[in-house]
Design brief:
- The complex is a heterodimer of chains A (285) and B (827).
- Chain A has 285 residues and is of the alpha+beta class.
- Chain A has three domains: 49 residues, Uridine Diphospho-n-acetylenolpyruvylglucosamine Reductase, domain 2, CATH 3.30.43; 112 residues, 2-Layer Sandwich (Uridine Diphospho-n-acetylenolpyruvylglucosamine Reductase, domain 3), CATH 3.30.465.10; 104 residues, 2-Layer Sandwich (Enolase-like, domain 1), CATH 3.30.390.50.
- In chain A, 32% of the residues lie in helices and 26% in strands.
- Chain A has twelve helices and 14 strands.
- In chain A, helix 10 packs antiparallel against helix 11 and helix 11 runs antiparallel to helix 12.
- With 827 residues, chain B is α+β, with helices and mostly antiparallel strands.
- In chain B, strand 23 and strand 24 form a beta hairpin.
- In chain B, helix 12 packs parallel to helix 21, helix 17 runs parallel beside helix 18 and helix 20 packs across helix 21.
- The chains are: A alpha+beta (285), B alpha+beta (827).
- The complex binds flavin-adenine dinucleotide.
- The site of flavin-adenine dinucleotide has 30 residues of chain A, from strand 2, helix 7 and strand 10.
- Chain B: One of its GO terms (molecular function) is oxidoreductase activity.
- Chain B: It holds the Pfam family Ald_Xan_dh_C.
- Chain B: This is Molybdopterin-dependent oxidoreductase.
Amino acid sequence: MIPAPFSYARPTTVEEALQAIAEGGEDVKVLAGGQSLIPVMRLRLAAPETVVDLGRVDGLRGVRDDGDAIVIGAMTTHSDVLSDPLIAEHAPLIAEATGTVADRQVRHRGTFGGALVHADPAGDLPAVALALDAEFVIVGPGGRRTVPAAEFFVDYLTTAVEEGELLVEVRVPKLAGSWGMRYEKFNRVAQAWSIVAVAAVVRRENGRIAEARVGLTNMGPTPLRARQVEEALAGAEATAEAVAAAAERAAEGTEPSSDLNAQADYRQHLATVLTRRAVTAAAGL
Amino acid sequence: MTAVEDRAGLPSDEPAAPEIGKARRRKEDARLITGKTTWTDNMVLPGMLHLAVVRSPVAHARITHVDVSAVREAPGVIAVYTGQDFAEEQGSLPCAWPVTPDMVNPGHPSIAVDQVNHVGEAVAVIVARTKAAAQDAVELADVDYEPLPVVLDMERAVAEGADLVHDHLESNTSYHFVFDAGEMGTGSDTDQAFADADVVVSRRFVQQRLIPAFMEPRSVVVQPQGDNYTMWSATQIPHILRVMAAMVTGIPEHKLRVVAPDVGGGFGGKLQVNPEEILCLLIARRLGKPVKWTETRSESLMTAHHGRDQIQFVDVAADREGNVKGLRVRLLADMGAYLRLITPGVPALGAFMYPGIYKFPAYRFECDGVFTNKVPTDAYRGAGRPEATFAIERIMDELAVELGMDPLELRRRNWIDAAEFPFTTVAGLAYDSGDYETATQQALELLGYDELRAEQQRRRESNDPVQLGIGFSTFTEMCGLAPSRVLGSLSFGAGGWEHAAIRMLPTGKVEVVTGSTPHGQGHETAWSQLVADSLGVPFEDVEVLHGDTAISSRGLDTYGSRSLVVGGSAVVKAADKVIAKARKIAAHLLEASEDDLDFAGGKFSVRGTPGTGLGIQEIALAIFAAHDYPEGIEPSIDAEATFDPENFSFPHGTHLCAMEVDTETGFVKIRKYACVDDVGTIVNPLIVEGQVHGGLAQGIAQALYEEAVYDDDGNLTTGTFVDYLVPAASDLPHFDTGNTVHAAPGNPIGAKGVGEAGCIASTPAVVNAALDAVRHLGVTDIRMPLTPERVWRALHDGGDGGERATARTNAQAADSTEGPSMTGGAL
Ligand SMILES: Cc1cc2nc3c(=O)[nH]c(=O)nc-3n(C[C@H](O)[C@H](O)[C@H](O)COP(=O)(O)OP(=O)(O)OC[C@H]3O[C@@H](n4cnc5c(N)ncnc54)[C@H](O)[C@@H]3O)c2cc1C
């Protein structure tokens, strides 16, 4: 379908972008890769007055090394992420999850930042960002601020990015020590969103699991950390039995939705199975 | 894999290898794939206006008030029409198949006048200068609806005191169709057979509602010129559409030309006379201007006709040794809100296929066509035959379990042996040729059956979380639609013949005009191969014309795997006539007797005089000049032929699926798929393989992925491709395909039809395989599609997984869903 009429701005810097947003009227939408926004506009579920296209803001694209962290520009496309050496070295979990996003065409246009700001509960990257304790750098008329992942995802399709603001980059801390990672995605066809998915990051030390971080996709309106699993794993022996026992707690406290693909109780069941599989793989068992 | 032959480039004096049997790449594909062609929506005519349709957001309501004044004021809008504007002239969309004399047809207005009966029904049409302007004005239409009770569930719809879809009718039942072999004299008494049987197995199967989901959306352009009209439409059936549209609108048939330019898929979904086609004609007639309508994908999923949607009650009777004794089938078939072109006929066509390849002595079939407040159902790849094949192939497995027999052994014991062809079945059909044993043996080898059975055993013994199963489908289908007299006996509104013409051009090039209209099947390539062999002309010298009623005057279009069998046969018959005519000219020019002429490799030569001769392409030039030809004949070697088959053709095959089931998550994954099909003579192996692959994709999709789901209010929940899951290549396994060839005796080519085979055969093979993997864990049925959740629930809660449905087709959806109602991925 054809979207409703809108005005269009194409800034080349972050400053110009902020200005275009400020001047854009009542309902302004930022356009990144357009893979979520354009379909919603074509279905006329959204009819913004102005669309501010970040496609020419080159400064927002790319990955850089910043000492103890890598910094991923919001406009870095999924396909850029997949071939980036810094991500491959320091945060392969991001590449693994990104590789499960949609299909080549979508990955070619869709962006890392867009996927995170869109914050679809079924989207793959929010739980990964949460498990990696990423930090979100946001700019707006009031200046620049950094928000930890734990505070970034506020509600269904809602993040800490306020009206008039932009997500500019995401800082992902480099992990020290011997870490293993795994993203276990469960969906019905290869191009589909996650019914449930689990991101696991595990540090092993002397035959034990020293630390584990487990992010859950689509187990509620926002991505979640499976804290009970993490606590049960901390210091546990690195055995299949210990992991299985801890994984049983993956769905505790979750309130997933029910839809065509899965009722809530089935999602909760999947979370336990996928957590066991993800942690087992991440722990190298 | 089929090796692909590129242009041969042979030296011209060597006799060319026969074209029939060559794996030619399709000559039409480059333009189709790049889109550099006349898809209907690519057409732009001077002064052309664009339509957008305002559609009902409610499933069942009286229209109490329509205010379109704001629409009229909107920028770019030229006109807006409501049902009232066309109430007098729109008539009813046609239903060509009154399956019983007392079938109730409520009629189907193209645009609703005072009542809407399904979500998406047209209530107003906007005409504007641009498509965007028309679309923008849609939300300005103000329509008031007084809600009526929504009827969605078939079993409730036929119950006592049910709410009515059409309140001027007595019930929601359109017809009750019966085929009883005992009464027809083709079998013995069914009740007696069941009374005498050792074993009776009864099952209820659900054929979920499917959406044809063709790639090219529907699109219509109508151009008025004086009192003549040309309609371009993305349709499978330009010829039928012309006749029907003339009858509906009153535009005389000879004043209406219908063109199906290149059409991007149909699968039965474009075997229809659409409301929008009629509305385009009516509006073009009012305004005297060309108009275009192209649907959005959302409109397509919501309003183009759907397929399947039946509840099947199947009983099979047998003795202890496993000899089948009787078959009883009772269907509820969801018509949707209206009867479209062949809505009622789809289950009736299936009626003849339930006995499958087995020698049932007794058979009874009954079907109720039921109205609901959903979009109408109609033809979808296989149309009735996939449903029948599913039922028989599923229940044969259930019977095998009941008898403690190997499912293949049970099939063998009951199928028709190769020596028994032609074989008249209990449904009265004369199966033409085949050999089920050989096809099955080949398929078992392709699959690597013994190793997989051994692995299955190992996985069972080790209690592996991933279990393995193997499913069979030994199927046949009726193709080559259809002998006209048989269609007459079934009260179908048309014949089943096909027409072709061959035009010999002065330069020796050949135009073939076919009445069978391709929409992705590759007619241009296959027909060229037929004619190249018949006339002995190069493949490249043949051009195939189709889809335009002004060029191809007679035709019955493409559906039911009929094109090659019926349409191709007409081409071959026309070629024979060309040769017969050319023979007279050749005899005259070579000064020989006709009887002394041989025709081979495109050349007439005088027997016993090597080196002499005259090519048919030279004769084409000679007769164009017409300077020297015999007395008493007309100066033309062009010819036409109409072929009316005397019987259907009966492709058959054995499809085997090996399936892995993850018992922890319910995820199913096809491990291996092997099939051996007998489609008669193979004109182009590459096209045959392609048709099998595409058919398998759609058949597997019914088993595992696709389902049109309505919510309790009658809204289509699966309204985008995010929720209506069409599998892609990455979701499907490698296919191991093979063929046996038993030529069809009923047509000059020997072809049986391949368009629907994969789609008909695969669904039960896949479901049987999944059940075989988990039957030892207590699972006896899983409702299609086999979503992971359903499989998991069947494993853990018992039942078929359909009760706490992941995808609910009807009002049984008891518990309300929590949280945001969008499925994963709000986009
Ligand atoms: C067919 C299909 C399948 C998909 N499958 C998956 C999948 O399996 N897994 C998955 O995770 N995703 C999937 N996606 C979504 C994909 O990852 C998108 O790329 C992503 O959700 C949005 O990214 P985008 O760059 O396209 O953002 P856009 O669509 O351009 O924007 C999305 C939203 O974010 C806002 N926004 C974007 N960038 C910024 C910014 N820098 N600052 C502030 N606001 C911003 C926009 O205003 C808009 O509201 C799929 C998409 C499609 C079309």
